[in-house]
What we know:
This protein is of the alpha+beta class. The chain has helices at residues 15-24, 79-87, and strands at residues 28-29, 36-40, 45-50, 54-62, 67-74. It has a five-stranded antiparallel β-sheet, with helices on one face. It is globular. 13% of the residues are buried.
Amino acid sequence: MAIPPAETPLYNHPLPDIEDWLRSQGCQQDHNQLHCWHLQQASWEAELTLDIDQLTVRYFNFGEEGQDLQRSFKYSLSRSDIEAAVFSGP
């Protein structure tokens, strides 16, 4: 079965497809908390949490001051919109 089109709301994606998508973006699943994912970039790092009704992203150590930032994205947004917002960084 193919992954739904990128314009499809994330809530219409089966969980295995969401997990494959996160892996393809460079995320690594937490072995103890399976709903948590980690992403390391050159200038920032993030923890993504698959909550009940939204994807929550916490960015750590970005910018010159090593700031943290949290953002949440409802699953009603398309995968492409979430991808553009999350993986472009804080």
